[in-house]
Design goal:
- Keywords: Magnesium, Metal-binding.
- The chain folds into two domains: 11-173, Ribonuclease E inhibitor RraA/RraA-like (Glucose Oxidase, domain 1), CATH 3.50.30.40; 179-217.
- Helix content is 33%, strand content 20%.
- A hairpin with a 2-residue loop joins strand 11 (162-166) and strand 12.
- The protein has eight helices and twelve strands.
- It has 225 residues and is α/β, with parallel strands linked by helices.
């Protein structure tokens, strides 16, 4: 049995950078409201954000030996993302491992388990997203797998999938669809810019600007003046 696959198909840095210019919410909407990971996976600091290819890890609950293995083999720009059975009652990652990640030039660390040393993580600034914050430690006993498809946050994430995370959450983009998603994001942002400008002018109601007049009429909305 192979535990670690070091080679994955990574998207081009140009595509990653292009997606990274858009928010996770914009990407989610633009690609048809798909790819969002569970809302509980949030950064330890709302200012943290990232975009990069997934370097996937399957770890046992309360055990971070494969986390350390994965960090050792990940490359600059990678996002180490760990499926740890959603075990929140342990801090599987802290400031020491974050320092190691940052020194290697990794893009971020994501886990559905817990992390700790949250104050130090915020000071360090390396993007860390987790399901919880917990002071309890982990063991280093059971082997898992690195760079196999994992189930995390209600989605299947494959090695090399593009992950975009910010204060609102994390979205997954299929690398084969990434260039089209970038185009759709630009179109969405242009559309929203036009809507904001109409709101600033103030010469139409919100219902009119958002195109809800006929829909509300069809649904029988009654307003008492």
């Amino acid at each position: 049995m192979i535990h670690v696959r070091t080679e994955i198909d990574r998207p081009s840095p140009e595509v990653v950078a292009a997606l990274g210019r858009f928010s996770a919410a914009t990407i989610h909407e633009a690609q048809g409201r798909k790819g969002a990971l569970a809302h509980r996976l949030k950064p330890v600091d709302p200012a943290m954000s990232f975009c990069g290819p997934a370097f996937t890890v399957e770890a046992q609950a309360g055990d971070n030996i494969m986390v350390q293995v994965a960090i050792s083999y990940a490359r600059p720009g990678d996002v180490v993302i760990v499926a740890g059975s959603e075990f929140e009652q342990a801090g599987s990652f802290g400031d020491v491992l974050a320092t190691a990640c940052q020194s290697k030039g990794l893009a971020a660390f994501v886990t559905d388990s817990g992390v700790r040393d949250s104050a130090d993580l915020r000071t360090l600034g390396f993007p860390v997203f987790s399901g919880s914050i917990c002071i309890e430690g982990t063991v280093k006993e059971t082997l898992g797998q690195v760079n196999r498809p994992i189930s995390i946050g209600g989605r299947i994430v494959r090695p090399g999938d593009i992950l975009r995370g910010d204060a609102d959450g994390i979205v997954v983009v299929d690398p084969l669809e990434a260039e089209e998603v970038v185009r759709l994001c630009r179109r969405r942002e242009d559309h929203e810019a036009r809507i904001r400008e109409q709101h600033r002018r103030g010469d139409r109601t919100l219902i009119e600007v958002h195109g809800l007049t006929e829909k509300l009429k069809a649904k029988g909305l009654v307003v008492e003046e």
